[in-house]
Structure formats: structure tokens, C-alpha cells
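Model it.
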Amino acid sequence: ICTAPGICEPGSPVKLFDYGAAGRPVIAANAPSVTEIITDEKNGLLFEEGSLEGFVEALSRLIEDDKLRDQIARTFREKIEEEHTWEKVGQRTERVLSRVLNTSRN
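Modeled.
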């Protein structure tokens, strides 16, 4: 089980991509940059940032529930592989740059 109990905003929580690629279940604070990647109860567990009680509750759930832990890990890895590989990031960057270049030429 991997955790991200606090995220420095603004910025991308890169460690989440590493956790997902490694096939690990994740619990994380529900910061805006995190909720762009993790959907609560689907591919991770989220808790209110700064809430020790929420963190402990999410961690306990994953420790105690093998099925939930495996489902979250599998779903998160699939999302990372489908949307967040370096190849996918490169393709999105290329599309944005192409639009910018096309706009500036007009």
C-alpha cells in the first residue's frame, strides 16, 4: 500500500504515477492535482487532506480488505497504462504544441 498523505500544490504528484505503474494500491489526500488522477473508491482511496482520522480509516480498509486492495491496485495500474505513460504524455504535449503553433501562424 502506497500513501500520499499530503501534496504540495501546485504541481503534479509524480509519485502517484510511479505507485500506479508498480501496481500498488494508493490512499491519498484529496488535493485537486490528486483528484485529476484518482477517483475515490475506484482506483484509490481519498481522504480529507490533513485528516489523520481519514488517513487511518483508508489505510485500515486496505489492510483489512484483500479484494478491495487488489481491485484498486489493478484499476489504478490500468489507468496509468492507458493515460499516463511517457508516450501518452508526449502525444498530449505534441497536440497542444501543434494547436499553439497553428494559432500563432494565423
